[in-house]
Design goal:
Blueprint: E1 12-16, H1 22-37, E2 42-45, E3 65-68, H2 73-80, E4 86-88, E5 100-103, H3 105-117, E6 124-129, H4 133-148, E7 153-158, H5 165-181, E8 186-190, H6 193-206, E9 214-219, H7 223-228, E10 234-237, H8 240-255, E11 264-267, E12 271-273, H9 286-298, H10 305-309, H11 316-327, H12 331-349, H13 354-360, H14 366-377, H15 381-388
Helix pairs in contact: 1-8, 3-4, 5-6, 12-14, 12-15
Domain HTH araC/xylS-type: 289-387
Keywords: DNA-binding, Transcription, Transcription regulation
Pfam family, one: Peripla_BP_3
């Protein structure tokens, strides 16, 4: 007798996500990763421009689920009429009663500020697009951290809805006027990499030196775009891959009939990919600047605070006091922070064991590294690797 096993029906899932930018492609990569590990969904994906009107097929879609970037009210209206599970992966948050998975834009703004402060900047600026909620959230978080530490932030926001050439030229002229008004040296956060590229064009045209006069940081880490920039662009790295995996996991649960609450699922950024556009120290104190450079270059060589003190003509007490006043942390905290950042990178980007990583990052052993990492990141190294690694 031959027994036939009935195969479960393959789920049909539509992806309303554009492929024109690095972040969206990261989302799609995370969704693909989840599919390969779990149910083999039948995927429907068509070329979609960011913020475009809903495609004609959406109203008649009779599949099992949808993951969408609900960027405008037109798309939101079409999605509300669907009788299938939907997960939103847009910061616009236009349908509050469905699950929402997004990068943590507040954390991005705070991380960008930290990146500039550890380089000694005291002047800050933000350039964004007021029509995007994620840009507003990044600006608000960046401005709040600047204000909290007693500094000021100069912000500029594009608000172009009219895409006619004369309107675009007017906005470019306004951008140039704003950039030229900034006090140097200054750290500028652009809401995403494409905006940063526009600022670099202004700097090149008007002879502003990057990064010595204006250090520039983008968001999304579009590696091709960042490397094409002159100089190469530093950028905050959002966990787009993990965001896509989380969205797929939630949709999978909903299609299995599980209850999923419509609460925000915010994914922390992975760090900053530092390139030439922010590779500078704006610290006025030459001894502290030299110490920061030494820590940056040797933090994973097993150094301690006494090794740093030997490099500056100051007593340990005076050195630590001046370092804390300028950097907002002790030399020991700075050494540990930079080691943890390197551990984070190696966990995500390599197959090295914990023992190998501890040796490469200057920790005495992998047990001590694990304790320090968990204290800083909230997860043990192995858990962090499983959660954030691109598979």
């Amino acid at each position: 007798m031959i027994c036939w096993t009935k195969m479960p029906k393959q789920k049909a899932v539509a992806l309303l996500i554009e492929t024109s930018n690095a972040y969206a492609r990261g989302l799609l990569g995370g969704i693909a990763s989840y599919i390969h590990e779990h149910d083999l969904w039948s995927i429907y994906l068509v070329e979609q421009e960011r913020g475009a009107a809903p495609p004609s097929w959406l109203n008649d879609w009779d599949g099992d689920g949808l993951i969408a970037r609900i960027e405008n009210e037109e798309i939101a209206s079409s999605v509300r009429n669907l009788k299938i599970p939907v997960v939103d992966v847009s910061a616009a948050r236009r349908i509050p009663n469905i699950p929402w998975v997004e990068t943590n834009d507040v954390a991005i703004g705070e991380l960008a500020y930290q990146h500039f402060r550890e380089r000694g900047f005291e002047n800050f600026a933000f350039c964004g697009e007021s029509r995007f909620n994620w840009s507003i959230l990044r600006r608000q978080a960046f401005e709040a951290r600047v204000k909290e530490d007693g500094f000021q932030c100069q912000s500029f926001n594009f608000n172009v809805d009219d895409r006619r050439p004369q309107s675009l030229k007017r906005e470019r002229d306004r951008l140039a006027e704003w950039v030229l008004s900034l006090q140097h040296p200054i750290g500028v956060l652009a809401c995403y990499d494409i905006m940063a590229q526009k600022i670099l064009d202004v700097c090149r045209l008007h002879g502003i030196k990057v990064p010595s006069e204006l250090a520039l940081l983008g968001v999304d880490n579009d590696e091709l775009l960042c490397d094409l920039c002159t100089p190469p662009l530093s950028s905050v790295v959002p966990a787009a891959h993990q965001t896509g995996r989380e969205a797929a996991s939630l949709l999978d649960a909903m299609m299995r009939g599980e209850e999923v609450h419509a609460e925000p699922h915010l994914i922390e950024p992975l760090g900053v990919a530092t390139r030439q556009s922010t590779d500078v120290l704006a610290i006025k104190d030459p001894e502290i600047a030299a110490a920061v450079r030494f820590i940056r270059d040797h933090c994973c060589d097993g150094i301690n605070v006494q090794d740093v003190v030997k490099k500056v003509p100051l007593s340990r007490r005076v050195f630590e006091s001046r370092f804390l006043a300028l950097m907002g942390r002790t030399p020991h905290q700075e050494i540990t922070r930079r080691r943890i950042e390197r551990v984070r990178y190696l966990l995500i980007e390599t197959d090295l064991t914990l023992v190998q990583i501890s040796r490469r990052t200057g920790f005495q052993n992998h047990e001590y590294m694990s304790v320090a990492f968990r204290r800083a990141m909230g997860h043990p190294p192995a858990t962090y690797r499983r959660k954030f690694r691109k598979i």
